[in-house]
Each structure stands twice: as C-alpha cells, then as structure tokens.
Amino acid sequence: MQRKALKLAVIGGGSSYTPELLEGLIKRYADMPVRELWLVDIEAGKDKLNIVGELARRMVAQAGVPMEVHLTLNRREAIAGADFVTTQLRVGLLAARRQDEHIPIAHDVIGQETTGPGGMLKALRTVPVILDICRDIEELAPDAWLLNFTNPAGIVTEAVHKHSRVKSVGLCNSPLAFTKMLAAEYGVAEKETLPEFVGINHLHWVTAAYVNGEDKLQELIARGASHTAANVKALDWDPDFLRALGAIPSYYLRYYYMRDQMLADMKSALAADGTRADIVGRVERELFELYRDPQLREKPRQLEQRGGAYYSEAAVRLMHALYTDRRDIQTLNVANDGMLDFLPADASIEVNCVVAAQGPMPLRPQRVPESIKGLLQAVKAYESLTVEAAVTGDRDVALLAMAAHPLVPSVAVAKALLHEMLDANRSYLPQFCGDIALETGANDR
Amino acid sequence: MQRKALKLAVIGGGSSYTPELLEGLIKRYADMPVRELWLVDIEAGKDKLNIVGELARRMVAQAGVPMEVHLTLNRREAIAGADFVTTQLRVGLLAARRQDEHIPIAHDVIGQETTGPGGMLKALRTVPVILDICRDIEELAPDAWLLNFTNPAGIVTEAVHKHSRVKSVGLCNSPLAFTKMLAAEYGVAEKETLPEFVGINHLHWVTAAYVNGEDKLQELIARGASHTAANVKALDWDPDFLRALGAIPSYYLRYYYMRDQMLADMKSALAADGTRADIVGRVERELFELYRDPQLREKPRQLEQRGGAYYSEAAVRLMHALYTDRRDIQTLNVANDGMLDFLPADASIEVNCVVAAQGPMPLRPQRVPESIKGLLQAVKAYESLTVEAAVTGDRDVALLAMAAHPLVPSVAVAKALLHEMLDANRSYLPQFCGDIALETGANDR
Amino acid sequence: MQRKALKLAVIGGGSSYTPELLEGLIKRYADMPVRELWLVDIEAGKDKLNIVGELARRMVAQAGVPMEVHLTLNRREAIAGADFVTTQLRVGLLAARRQDEHIPIAHDVIGQETTGPGGMLKALRTVPVILDICRDIEELAPDAWLLNFTNPAGIVTEAVHKHSRVKSVGLCNSPLAFTKMLAAEYGVAEKETLPEFVGINHLHWVTAAYVNGEDKLQELIARGASHTAANVKALDWDPDFLRALGAIPSYYLRYYYMRDQMLADMKSALAADGTRADIVGRVERELFELYRDPQLREKPRQLEQRGGAYYSEAAVRLMHALYTDRRDIQTLNVANDGMLDFLPADASIEVNCVVAAQGPMPLRPQRVPESIKGLLQAVKAYESLTVEAAVTGDRDVALLAMAAHPLVPSVAVAKALLHEMLDANRSYLPQFCGDIALETGANDR
Amino acid sequence: MQRKALKLAVIGGGSSYTPELLEGLIKRYADMPVRELWLVDIEAGKDKLNIVGELARRMVAQAGVPMEVHLTLNRREAIAGADFVTTQLRVGLLAARRQDEHIPIAHDVIGQETTGPGGMLKALRTVPVILDICRDIEELAPDAWLLNFTNPAGIVTEAVHKHSRVKSVGLCNSPLAFTKMLAAEYGVAEKETLPEFVGINHLHWVTAAYVNGEDKLQELIARGASHTAANVKALDWDPDFLRALGAIPSYYLRYYYMRDQMLADMKSALAADGTRADIVGRVERELFELYRDPQLREKPRQLEQRGGAYYSEAAVRLMHALYTDRRDIQTLNVANDGMLDFLPADASIEVNCVVAAQGPMPLRPQRVPESIKGLLQAVKAYESLTVEAAVTGDRDVALLAMAAHPLVPSVAVAKALLHEMLDANRSYLPQFCGDIALETGANDR
C-alpha cells in the first residue's frame, strides 16, 4: 500500500543527540519518508539549535534524501499537522540536573537524574511543560503520536495518560541495549532473541531471555551476564542474590539493591570529577565544537560516548513500526490497565508490546517473581504521588511523594530535601511558586 | 538458524479432514519439515484410517517431499517423542452427535454440536479422553505442544489447563474465516488486517477491525458485513442491535441472540433433512468414496464443502509460528490469567495472541463492550461447571452446569435433559456410569 | 448521650403502607423521637394522602406521642432539613404496573413488577423521579439519609450511587422475612440467628444460616424449609437442585430457575384473577375504605395481607440503627466496591452490613457458590445497562438492556417488547419521549 | 440459651502476663465460664510455670469461681478437647530477643522485636513451633479457636492460614489502646467510639475516628493526639506530614517514618540501659519476685508497667465475643481475601471485624489513603517471603525476604545480617540447620 510522507516535530531539537536521530531517519528514508523535519527549541537554546540544524542539513544533503529541515522557536508551527512529535528536552538545562544530583548527596541520599529525589524534581519541572505541549498537540495535531524520551519517562508518560487525550508512548534505550547484549552473547540476530521485561521505567527486571525459543535466563545469571550504561556505575551483582531472585535487574536497580555502595561511590566520584551533570557538560561542549565544523557531514563517532546509546535507534524503530504496521515486539512505557494486576490500572508500566499501526498492544508477562512486587509497588506509589504533585503543585502531596520514595530514609529528610530542592528550582516550578513565569522546553537531555 | 525435522501425531487421523491437513503440511514442507506424520485411530476407525492413510501417502509421493506417513492404532507409539500432537477426534462418532442435536430439540431447546446441552454432553464425553492423551504426552513427549481442535474447544482447553501440565492451545477456524472475509471486503492482504476478538470459544465478538491501521468496524456494521459457516444458519442480524452493540458477534451467537428463530429453523430443518449430523454423515460417505480412488493424489475439491473451512490452515499456521518463532498474531484459546478481568483467572478465553517459539502470548483487548460481559460470564460459568462435572463425574455438578446454561429455560428442563442425555451416552461416560469401559478417540470430527 | 429530635419526610406518603410505618415509629418513639413526620404526595394522590394522613394523626393521638404529622404536596418543604427521607412511590400508579405485567406475558415472557421487562420499565419510570428527589436533598438536606424502598430497589439504589452525592441505602423486606422464618423454625430469638445473604436485590441466595453460631443451612435444605411472599407463587424447589446448589435461593429466583412453570402459572392466574396489579388494586380499595373510618385509631389487621410484610419494620429498624449507632447486622443494598469481586465495583449489591451512625458497613460474605455467579453477573449486566438507559434515555442502550435480560429469549422479542412498552409508558418517560412533561412520585407502592 | 462450660489451653502459660489473663477470665466468669484452664510450658520454663500457676490458683480461690487450674509440660494433654488455645510463647526466650535487637543495630539497622531483621528472625523461630501446635489442634481439638498473641502476630497468623486448617485469629493490643485513648480524649464510653484501622499487624493507620457517628480524625490530627506503648519511643510526629497523610499512623510506623531518629535513639539507649530485652529482663525478674509471695492473691499493679497493656483485655474480649455470639467490632488479624485489593488475597491483614460465634467477619475499610499503599505492599511482600522462608528453610528465600525489608539498606547488608543472625539462632532453626533438635514454646512473650 502507498503511504503518505511524514512530518516530524522534535521538541528540544537543539540537543546534542539530534545527529544520531538524523542518521536513523536518513537510513530508513525509503521505508519511512520523513519529508518535513521540524527542530524546535526555546530562545535560550537558539545557538545550539542553529549549530545542530546546520549539521542536520549537511547530513541530509550528503545523503541525497528529499528531507526538509526546519529550525524554529515557534513550537505551535512545528506541531501543526505533525504525524509524530518527539520530546528530548531538559527543563532547567544541566544546571538543574546538577542540583538534582548534588543536593541529595549532601543529605546522604542517592542523587541521580531519574531515580530518587533528583528524579522527582526533574518530574516536577518537566510534567507541566510536557502537558503544555500536549495541549498544543490536542489542538493542532490531534492524530499525532507523542513519543516521549524525556526523563523520568515513566512518570512523564503516566502524567500524559492521566491528564491528556494525546496518543503517547514512553521510551527508554535500556531494554534495547539488553537485547543487543543478549544477541551478542549468543551470536544471533536481535530478532532471534526475545527478552521479557517486567516493571516500570528504570525499574524493570528481565524475567526470561529467549534465544530461538529457548529461555537462557538461568544460564545468563550463572554466567553473571549483565549490561549497564555510561551513567550508572557497573558494580557487580551478588551472584547468590541474582540466583535467588531468578531475574536480571535493570542496571538502575543498583540504586536500590546496592544503595550504600552506590552512595559511597557517588560521593568519591563527586569529589574527583563532579557528578554526571558535570561530565556531560564537558562532553557536550566538545560535541558542539565538532558540530560547528562545516566539513562535518555525518554523525561524529564521539557522540556514541555521550551516553544514551541506542536512544535514536529505539525512537526510529518505534516510529517505523507505527508507520508500517510492523507488529514487531518492542519494550515500551504504556498504561497498565490490568496487565500487572498488582499495580494501579492507570499507572504507566514498561513491558513488551506489539507495535501495530493503531498503537502498541502490551503483552502479558508470563512470570512475575513475587520478590520484586513490593519494591515495584513502593516506587510506583511514589511515582503516582509525584504525578499528582506535579500537576496540582500541592506541597502536601509533594511531601508524601518524597517521603514515599524507598531511597529517602525518613520524613524528616524528605521534608528537608523537599524544602531545599523546591527552593533551588523555584524558577521552573510555577505550580508550586505561582509568581514565577514558566520557562519551557530547553534542549539538552 | 538450522531447525530440526519434526514428528507430528494426529489423534483421530482417520478423519475426513486429514487430506486438508496433508495439503497444508506439504505446502509448508520447506519451512517446516514434518518428517514423520503419525495418523492414529481406534479399532472402530481402522477402515477409515487406512483409506485416508493411503490417500495421504499418494499425496506425499505426488508432492515429492520426504515425509513418512505412519498409520497406527497404538497411540503411545505415535505420541512418543512427538513435537506436536493434534486432536481431531469425536468420541461416540456421528451417532453421539446426532443425539446431542436431537434430544434437546425434542425439549424445545437448541440442539447443537458445541452450544447448549449438546455441547455439554460432547464435553463430558471428550474431556476424559483428552486428559488421557495428556497423561501419555506428559510421559512420552513432555515438550510437545498439544494443539486441540476437538470441540467444544474452549471447554476442552480449559480442562487441559486445569488438569494437566501439557503445553496446549485450543484452536477454532472461525476467527481466521473472519479475517479472510475482512481482507476480501477491502481488497487487501490478510496481513494488512487486524481484527480484534474478545470472548471465549464460539462466543466471541469482533470489537475492532483494523485495515492498514484504520478501524473499519463501524463501517462493517453499517454495511451489514458478516460471515458464517456451513453449520450455522445465516439468519440476518438486526441492524439496530448491531449498531447498539458496537461489535460484530460470532455466528454462533445467533443461538443466543436469535434463540427463538434458530430453534424454529432447526425444527423445520430436522423435519426436512435431519440435523447437521445427518447431513455430515452423508457428506462423509461421499468423501470416503472419493478417497478410495487410487488415482486421487491430492485433496479433492468436495472436501471444501464439508464445513470447518480453514481448520487445517489455522492448524498449520499455528504449528509453523511455534516452529519458526514467527511472532505473528493469531486468535487462540488460552488461559485467561487476568487478561479479561471479568472472567476467572483459570478460564480459557479466545483472544489475539502473538505466537513465538515459546508459545502464544495473549494481547490485551483494547475495548470490551459492557453489554457483552453478562452473557460471557454466564456461559463461562456453565463451561467451568462442565469441566468440573466432566472430571469428577459428579451428577450434582452436572445438574448445576446444565441449569446454568442460558439456553436451558429452567431447572426442570435441565434435569430432564441431563437424565435423558446421560443415559443415551452411558457407554461414553465412565466417570458417571462407572461400570462401563471407556471407548477412546474415534476419528471423525 | 443526648440525641436530637428527628424530622422524617415520606415521599409517597399517601401509600396504603403508611399506617404500618406509623405503628413502627410510634413503638420506637422513646428511642428515636420522630418529632416531625412529613407525608408528601402529588396532586393525583391528594385524596389518599388526606385519608392516610388523618388516620396517622388519630394513631399518634391515640398513642400519646408528641409527633407532628404534616401533609403536603410540596416536596421541597418536606425535605428541607430532614434527617431521613424515605421513598414509597409508584410512578404511573397501578395502571403502569398492570402494563408491566400484561405486556410481557402476551409475548410469552415473565411479566412481573421487579423482575424482567416489567422491572426494567418500572426502573425507567422511577429512576428520573428519584434522582430529582436527590437533587432536592443535595440542596435542602445534604446530611439526610435517603432510605429507598421503591422497586426495583437494586437498580434505583445503583442509580443514586452513580448519579448523586446523597447518602442512601436500598432496602427490601425479604431478608428480614427469611430471618424471621429461621428464628421461628428453631424457636429462638431473631438476634440468635445470622443468615448470610449473597447477591443483589431480588436475586440473592442464603449461603449460611447460623443459629447460635451453628450453620443450619444443610439441615434447612434437607427439610425443604423455604419462605415466600404474597406476590410470588410458592412453587416447590427441586430438592436435588437445592442440595447441589448448597444455598437457598430468594423466592424471586423462581422466575429464573422455574421460568416455564412460573410463566404457565402466570398465564392461568391472569385468565382467572388478572395479574398481581389487579389483585393489589382490589386490596387497596378495601384498605382505604377501612382507613376512612374515623373510629380507626391503629393499623388495621387487614394491612398485613397486603403483601410487603415487614417493610415498615425493616425501615424503622434501619433508621433506628443509624440514629442510635446500634451496629447490628442488617441486609441492605449498598455499593459493591470490591465486596463481591465478580461484580463491577460501582454495582449495587445486597449483603449483610453492620449499621453504625456513619452508615452501613458491608460484611464480606464467607462463601459464594461458583454456580450462582453466572446468573448474578448476567442480571447485574442488565441492571447496569438499565441504569444507563434510564439516565440517558438512549434507546440503543435500552435495547441492549432488554436483550441482556436472561428472561428475554431473543433480540427480536426484546425489540418488540421495548417498542411496545416504551410506547405504553410514554407519559412517564420524558427522557425517551422528550415532548412529555414528567409526572412525579405517585403514592402507592 | 444455655452455653457449655469451657476449656482453655494457654501455651506459654508460665509467662509473666498470665495473672492479667486470669484477672480477665475471673471477671467474665459469669458470662463465659472457663471451667478448665490449662497452663502449658516447656521444661526450661517449669519454674516460672509453677510460680505463675500457684498465683493463678490463689487468685481463683480468692475470687471464689469454680475454675480448675491445671499446670502441665504435656502440650497435647492441654490441647485435647480445648475450646480455645492461646499462645504467648517466646522461642529462645529473652536471650534470642536480645540478639534480634543487638545484631541489626551493630549494622546500623533498626533492631526491634517485631519490626525489621529482628522480627524476621523471631518469625523464623516461631512459625515452625506454632505450626506444630496447629498439627496438635487439628488432631486433638479440631473445633478449637487458636488465638495467636505471639509476635510477629501478622506473619504468624498468615503462616497458620496458609499452612493449617485450624480456625485462628491474630491479635494485638495496639488498636484497643487507641480506642481507649480516643474514648478518654472525648470523655465517652469505648462503645461510643469507632476508629477505623487499615493495614497489617504493627503497620496500620487510623483512617477514621468516629465518636457517636462523627469523624474526629482531622481534629485529632490537628491536636497532635497520638498514643504509644512502653516499647516504642514516643517521638513526636511531624504535624505537616500527618496533615498531608490524613491518617494517624500506628506507633510502630515511627521505625519507618523516623528511621534515622529512631536508630540514633536506639543506639544511645543501648549504650545507657541496653535494649528493650535487657529492660524487660529486669522487669520480669521483679515480677516473679512478687508472684512468689504466697500472700499475693490478685494481679499486682506493677504488671501494668510491663508493656503490652490491654493484651489480656483484648484476648478475653475476643474469646467472649466468639463464645457469646456478641457481634461487636474488634480489630483483628485475619485473611485478606480481597478486603484490601492492593494486597495478596492470602495475606493477613489487620482490620475491624464483627465477631460472631462462627468467627470474625472483616469490615471493608471505607477509605485507604493512596500514600500508605506503597509501604504496606513493600512490608507485606517481606512478610509473605518470610512465611515461605520459615516454612521451607530455603536460604535463598530468606535472603529475598531480608533484602525486601524497607529498613534494610542493601542486599549486601541483608546478606551479612542473615548470615550472622541465622548463625546466632541456629539452635532454634531446624528448618535451616537440619542437624539441630527443635526447642519449642518457651513461655515469656
């Protein structure tokens, strides 16, 4: 069947990731012709947008595909009539991330971009901006798919499902990275593998790992096979624990299962190199130096060391499956609706889905270890309270959310952290600090 | 990847359907090499087995594939080491079906092979035989898949899930027939369609009908598009009712929604031509005449008029997906496990599944009309009681099952029907009538 | 503790039942001082209101309690500031009931006041009137309890819970009648018994029957002990069926379990004496003759033959427990909220409750026989659709409701019945027939 | 009605609590004649049994009731034919408790009798002994009620429900203490109050506090009203947090909500006075000095300072309600069965129940704050894993349980604690350390 050409709007288009996304779109152009690519950013990100935008145009020209690259600060223009909208924005830029990491550590609590108090503040800053984007989509592109890559992706996706009519999916690179590791481990193609993921964003467990129909999970556990990412310290799992668990935890689960060691490690890393925000800041500066080079006509290798590997591949794969009715299995953040009966129906969960033209259809996990349910429920309770706090700006609910987080050791610490972090973020939290104008959608994730 | 050659055991191999199955296996041989095909039957079906078996051998020779066709009365020999076991048996042969149809009609109740009192008695006869086969599989081929085509497929599948460790799936031709109708209606390939089925075997509703990602359901309802089968009278649906319902009912639902007309029609048909068993008996005699012809080397056209269209296609497609880890979407009978939260967790349901090497993974239906739940729950309650009655031989439970069936108008009629039908079937119901030896697995379905 | 004097508003106060209610209020006056009794009726019921009201005043004078009896056609005046509001109204009076009974029987379907098509039409007439009353209560007496005795009490109660904020409970006399039968059977006081009821209004089963802590259910079943009411023909239960069931069905369940016999009996009764509406009409005329007698100063004996025995006792007992924080166990219609997990959370159910000052708290039934769930679910599905139809006036939903009722044999019959009955009731169904003014709250139940 | 005289077996009868129980039984003798009281203990507790037993006999003589007090080391003799069996035993005596408290604190983890690692080890020691008692009851007194007061009462009750057919209830004094505080606060009788408890043993929240039908919860929160017990340090709740929560937490919840302060406090208390076990040891020695006095003929005042206030009152009240079919509301540990739909069906929960002769019937809580669910689910997950570990002796499951506890900061700490504590308890853990004979049922709780 003949399919129509596409319009894609990228909110936070000035991000250093954009060249990777470009590369993916160019590769799939024959199958999925993105005729109009709109890179949107805010005033504060204008320079980066221009640098990245020019590189994008050079890449398109080099590849010889008829893709138009539009650069704009006018979000509504970009969204109008779009088929897909992706978000890769960071409200408050790296400076805000830096605070999310530093303040908790000063209270002896994990300070991390998506996990713990840092993730909560990021959610409080981000949810209102994303819901604002949803209002535009509802008005200007009601049939568009919103593909959300903005962290904390689980909380953001849940907020969108609860407070908007936009068709949306949340996405993380980590399941794809595991799949690639599995395929490499057994020397097979990715499509010959089928790992089963159970959980929520950044808190999932692999509970089966099929390779050509045979479950290799026990073998992987025995081998100590694992995977991690640039942003999470790769401490080794206790082999007795993994065997008892009968599942492979997401690398983010180190913040829970190895809380003390991870915190100690964070503290010494902070003393040496600063936090992850500090490192990413340096990497980004180097990348934009490269992007400026008018001779550069393709994605530079160095981007692969940026972290967030496979994000763009995951994004393009999802768009492609929705566009072509591909019906392959992808691991996505979707509404629970009874799929995991021990979590609320309106929670977002991260599970395998079949992606058809009408959207992702979740597959029921075949096995959920009893021992993971308690932690999942506790973190999901924190997440749902955070959605409510982000939408209402109710400080009582925010306190309940912070105190409910398993990494926060007491109500007293929760209260101190909340007070200090709300204050540090006041320019980005109009719902809590009503006198402040909202700065939307900065570009670096 | 290199895959091993297969052994397939067909219980009730002397059935008139076997040539269709053969045709399918031969077509797919390159992809799915069934090296050993074992056709099993019982002493009473020996002649038919030989006729069908010889035709099968001629078909294989004609096609030039290296498939060995074994004919045997020794079920255990056929099952030992099999990769797939299929069942297409009829306990009590057409004579029992005839009673299932005639006795209820004499009490002014729908008399049908799978629906109502007839279906219940067929279940009581069949479940013990299938569970006996499961015992053999557990012992002799514990990794084999049991593909159950024997009606009432929903009840039989539920009995297997509840009372055996065998990996099993239940299968019906009706969803495939709908898919083909949908593709034909829109002039597209089957794989461009995706109808969504919600319900249980012979009691499902189509609640969405995607064609290249667009839902054509309302359009189909407005057009009065429908489909039916040789064994169910194609009375027209009330268009107001279908519009109110917002779903397309399985043709078997005519027995409920048009009970009075269907019963009236059955009575006049019975007076004219006898019941469906009588008609099938004539068709089968003609088919076996054809099969006997040593010049016949392929499936005869006339088989297509037999009813049960696409059964073999559905069967071969399922085997193929399991064998090749195909991950396409098929509509199957599987354990509910919370997929339809208004039915018991251990009930069998009929829904879309992704079929991977490790088995079918059900997809959560996206919408379940409120108005179909009551009938589904009522019939499922009857089904679960029937499973219990079939396994225990408890007449009290059998009475509760019969009285629970929505087509049975009162306890008094239930009691009369049960008494008369148990008596008529006593040679096939050792669990109720303990003094009788069990006759297993006759061949015609 | 000192409790305040009460104001009670009785909507449909001109009903022939009122003297029984009076008797109960007078008896409990010391414990529960109803200082103001407001009997409300509509213009069409003015004469009856006056007759009953005068009798009420004579009864109060005779008893020497300081209760003021107010008669009014102004509902808002009666409701303003009330502590309790009770409803005992019949929209369309006995003439409408007569149609509810006659029309279905002409189509070979059970014609009954609360069960089947008759009950559905009564619900369609009644729900809007009750919700109108709720609007008044929300405005004029937001802390009042609405005690709903108007049938079909389960549907009406569900409509109130779904579409109003009024605190309300539905009530039926039948559980109390069973309790009295049980106490009499064992020669003990009522409070020494504890029957357990599971189900919904007019469709419950007794699943335990404690007498001083010992469950006598099996014994009762073996004895054939049962109870019934003036309005339901007391055909004998099949003893084998009851034993298999392991529960005692409500007498209304005869319409389901003995559908054919009950229908046959209805037809011959209709030929002989007319339907129940005809009989009640004659009884009421006789009662009002008696009430007119200025010498009558107490409830006449003859009222006890009217049917609806113990209604007033049940009503007064409920008010008394709410008023005195009594915490005794009463069987009431309340929101399900997960108490019966096989029915929707927002359904009304009829179960044992502890009645404290803040309201009834349902007790989880200890055992629910599997064999009753299917019928309960099917009838509840009909009820929930009926609530929706009554509130929206959507004919499509009304057709789904009628077709969903287990006593309606086909969609064709459902459609014919619906058409004929909506037409016959058009003056009482403004939501379906928008051009018609609504006649509210007539007085005879 | 005439009720039969009773036999009561008290396992761990040599406990210092026994005189309080005696006092309660004597007071209620007229209503609930315990004719035979059997105090059972083990060889190691023989001396205490004799001291307490002699005091019991003097108390009975003084009161002039015809109660026979039997002292025995033969548990089976005591249980045979009993109507009630109560357990107030401590496996490993105070020495084991001392380890439960000391070892975790050395790892910077809360060390407490029922909460955290200490509670887990107490469960591992206690569950096998209680299940052993259940075996005796099943054989020798199948109709008896087992009233379990042995901590951790929630886990022990869940183990009994999962692994025995004995009718049993778990009991804690803390809800009764709250009720008394509430009545005192408002100057009303206990029966005029109705606090609503939601949760599990030692982890409940008060979500409503009715006084004569009016909910005083917000008022209590605003006043900072609270209650505590001798064994839990009464740190003040954060008023902002309580207001946000909208519920009053059990005093045991301080270990979670104030983890850091409670731990700090424990450490300094340990340095000063030792742990609670050390204190209780001193109190007990003093009590037994008093009990020895042949002039003592009633419960000494000093016992009230022992901690566990109202335990005996709660126990006698429960027995009395079961015996007299009283149907009052008591807060008990019972099987969940869907009452709290966010916890497993087979979990034990602590909620209000109506206590009738046939047993306690749970009342559905009217409101469950979202913010308490996550913690409840996490702790219940730990509890259910602990039951499994206690019954199977599987060290993998024990590790999962320990790591699942919200107060344990990492898998590494969980592993270290488990190793050290299993080793310290090896004489009481035959299921883990198979070579060791089981010491059963010591007497002091």
Automatic annotation (TrEMBL), chains A, B, C, D:
Keyword vocabulary terms for this entry: Cobalt, Glycosidase, Hydrolase, Iron, Manganese, Metal-binding, NAD, Nickel
Binding site for Mn(2+): C172, H202
Pfam families assigned to the protein according to its UniProt record, in alphabetical order: Glyco_hydro_4, Glyco_hydro_4C
InterPro entries according to UniProt: GlycHydrolase_4_CS, Glyco_hydro_4, Glyco_hydro_4_C, Lactate_DH/Glyco_Ohase_4_C, NAD(P)-bd_dom_sf
CDD domains named among the record's database cross-references: GH4_P_beta_glucosidase (cd05296)
Binding site for substrate: R97, N151
UniProt site positions, description: Increases basicity of active site Tyr: E113
One of the GO BP terms on file: carbohydrate metabolic process
Record bears the keyword ATP-binding: no
Domain Glycosyl hydrolase family 4 C-terminal: start-end pairs: 197-408
Free-text comment on the cofactor: Binds 1 NAD(+) per subunit.
Signal peptide: none
Cofactor(s) the protein needs: NAD(+)
An example molecular function term from Gene Ontology annotations: metal ion binding
Family: Belongs to the glycosyl hydrolase 4 family.
The name this protein goes by in its record: 6-phospho-beta-glucosidase
